[in-house]
Amino acid sequence: MRTLETYKKIYFLGIGGIGMSALARYFNLKGLNVSGYDKTPTPLTNELQKEGIEVHFEDLGSQIPSNFSNASETLVVYTPAIKKLGEFDFFKNNGFTLLKRAEVLGLITRTSKGLGVAGTHGKTTTSSMLTHILNESHLKCNAFLGGISANFNTNFVASKTSEFTVIEADEFDRSFLQLSPFGSIITSTDADHLDIYGDAQTFLKGFQDYADQINPAGILILKKGLNLTSSAPIITYAINEDADFKGENLKVESGVFAMDIVSEKHNWKNIELGLPGIHNAENALACIAFCLFLGLSEEEIRFGLKTFKGVKRRFEYLIRTPKLVYIDDYAHHPTEIKALVDSVKLLYPTQSITGIFQPHLFSRTKDFMNDFAQELSKVDELILLPIYPAREEPMEGITSEALLEMCTLNNKKVMLPNDAVSLLSERTEGVILTIGAGDIDRIVLQLKEKLSR
User: Fold this and answer.
1) 316-451: what fold?
2) Are strands 245-253 and 324-329 parallel, antiparallel or unpaired?
3) Which of 53, 353, 408, 432 is a Cys-bridge partner for 377, taking CB atoms 3.0 to 4.6 Å apart?
């Protein structure tokens, strides 16, 4: 196969996706001619257009723009999420090279030192945190992120001088097996995407296969307790548990989240974290271990962690007053919901918590129904939205009503999104959480505006 350097033009099918748009920005910055299709306009596609990338929203079939019609100089990048598309058929039938997004990322990691961040939970926040720390240091980095970093206000970060590229290593569709990382963090291996992997054992094997691809001269930063091996050296991390890097004395003082760090060579006190939450303290530990391996100083690491603002829709504060707090979070797996709710309870122990959750995928809801019910029952008031189907067809008996029945709290209901906004719009106190990975984000700004009046 030809190398990326042989192509002058890059055409994206599904250009508005969070990962695809980052690649589009990368090639655009390199001076290539970039264009693409997506189903509907979004804030991301608006930003791409502002940056000079042409985006269209109708399937052109064989009527591809003439400047992208030369198969020898045009690379087509597509997302597996696209369904029947005339443009895809045209490219496939006319000799064009078509690569999945993950394949292109894999090629990029072979020409730079790829720093992967993998795991069922925490990939986006941890990769964004690592990127911010590195960019505030002497090393800098490039980065392809799975969310919009609040520090950079983008999902792609570029450096013309750094040899490092931070990449969110996605297990969905086994995409991370396309990568050749120099080093990696693995945050978790809780079973997910069982519609693709089949069972938990096969899912775990996918992570082992990924760990096997790490450069032996690099490093694997592994959360304590994960059953993975690597030919690269392994460093473990954990909160309040013996590990190579241990976080302890987590505390909140005057709204500042902080902890101490202990390792064989380090005993750092009062590390301030710009992003609160127990799970984010774990993410910070992983980044500290990685950055020390790469050669950063304590001063650089402390500053990077303190000034990290987080990622859109990851423990994102939308309202933060003494009486009323509104947090939006992408959590869509029981373990992620547990981390979110436990952290909120730590931060606001006397406040009533209302959670609005949109289950994502019928298969995931079915696989983890009991666990979802257990974690959602920890809030004081629960509103479930209808299940977001994404790529799936409905499954008999798998509904938000069935999940609600299993939740043990008294104050609970299933509502449509707009009805939930109306119900909550008059709230003046307590903590409100919007939770989920579907299209629940469509009501976030609407709810924020009503609560801010």
Assistant:
1) Protein-Tyrosine Phosphatase; Chain A (3.90.190)
2) unpaired
3) 408
